[in-house]
């Protein structure tokens, strides 16, 4: 390969990398997914949690049901974090005997992690409670009997349980990853869905491939001229 060809390959390499590296940097610096900070509502179905299909103000649990609330940041119901802790009716309500005309509802209250807490607030420790309420009571009434004060917004969205958080209600936030070691049910799910790390790798691979292709083309053209 002649010196002229080598210089041409080097110039082409620099130009291609200059084009791709800024794109890679943009991918790395993109903002993470946007989510919402709120209390999600769950039903216990056997050994797993399912996202409730109606709100606590209209849901009417039966005696022996287990329901949960989790404060976290998530994009939607598909990635919302589930309540942690003991979720067994026999354990939560073992000291609350049945009584005619009333029902018992086991509630799991998970105040979330520091990663999901509003600025300046610290989430209380998760806890459980057994609510004994009239047979026709809603989940909201059961919750109010054991975890007040509750706070709602003008659209009846549940904003606070036991006064947490002190302010805010379903606000939009930039989601971040939870501290390491929390496990699947403890994660801040919205952050986990971010795939910002994939962009730079793809860009650099494409740039490297382009350099090789252009370099090979330059060598081929030089050989053609030499053999002509």
What are its keywords?
228 residues; two-stranded antiparallel sheet; disordered N terminus; 6-stranded mixed sheet; alpha+beta; 8 strands
Q: What do these coordinates show?
A:
There is one protein chain. By secondary structure, this protein is of the alpha+beta class. It has 5 helices and 8 strands. It has helices at 3-29, 89-92, 139-147, 189-192, 198-227; strands at residues 34-45, 48-51, 66-74, 102-110, 127-134, 151-152, 158-160, 172-174. The strands form 2 sheets. Strands 1, 2, 3, 4, 5 and 8 form a 6-stranded mixed β-sheet that branches. Strands 6-7 form a two-stranded antiparallel ribbon. The radius of gyration is 28 Å and the shape is globular. The two termini are 16 Å apart. Mean pLDDT is 75; it is low at 3-30 and 177-220.
Rg over C-alpha atoms, rounded to the nearest angstrom: 28 Å
Percentage of residues in DSSP E strands: 15-25%
User: Alpha-carbon distance between the termini?
Assistant: 16 Å
Helix content: 25-40%
E-strand count: 8
Structural class: alpha+beta
Largest sheet: 6 strands, mixed
The SSE order reads HEEEHEEHEEEHH
Per the principal axes of the C-alpha atoms, what is the gross shape?
globular
Low-confidence runs: 3-30, 177-220
* Total number of helices: 5
Q: What average pLDDT do the residues reach? A: 75
Provide a compact summary of the structure.
The chain has 228 residues and is of the alpha+beta class. 32% of the residues lie in helices and 22% in strands.
Write the layout of secondary structure elements.
Blueprint: H1 3-29, E1 34-45, E2 48-51, E3 66-74, H2 89-92, E4 102-110, E5 127-134, H3 139-147, E6 151-152, E7 158-160, E8 172-174, H4 189-192, H5 198-227
Parallel strand pairs: 3-4
Antiparallel strand pairs: 1-2, 1-3, 1-8, 4-5, 6-7
């Amino acid at each position: 390969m002649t010196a002229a060809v080598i210089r041409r390959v080097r110039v082409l390499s620099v130009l291609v990398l200059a084009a791709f590296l800024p794109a890679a940097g943009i991918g790395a610096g993109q903002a993470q997914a946007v989510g919402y900070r709120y209390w999600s509502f769950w039903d216990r179905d056997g050994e797993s949690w399912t996202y409730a299909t109606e709100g606590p103000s209209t849901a009417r649990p039966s005696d022996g049901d287990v329901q949960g609330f989790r404060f976290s940041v998530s994009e939607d119901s598909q990635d919302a974090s589930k309540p942690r802790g003991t979720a067994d009716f026999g354990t939560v309500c073992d000291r609350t005997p049945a009584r005619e005309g009333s029902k018992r509802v086991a509630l799991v209250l998970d105040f979330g992690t520091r990663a999901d807490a509003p600025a300046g607030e610290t989430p209380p420790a998760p806890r459980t409670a057994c609510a004994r309420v009239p047979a026709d009571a809603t989940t909201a009434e059961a919750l109010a009997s054991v975890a007040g004060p509750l706070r709602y917004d003008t659209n009846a969205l549940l904003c606070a349980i036991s006064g947490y958080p002190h302010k805010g209600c379903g606000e939009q936030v930039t989601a971040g990853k939870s501290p390491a070691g929390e496990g699947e049910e403890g994660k801040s799910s919205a952050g986990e869905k971010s795939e910002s790390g994939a962009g730079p790798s793809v860009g650099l691979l494409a740039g490297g491939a382009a350099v090789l292709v252009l370099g090979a083309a330059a060598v081929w053209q030089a050989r053609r001229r030499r053999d002509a």
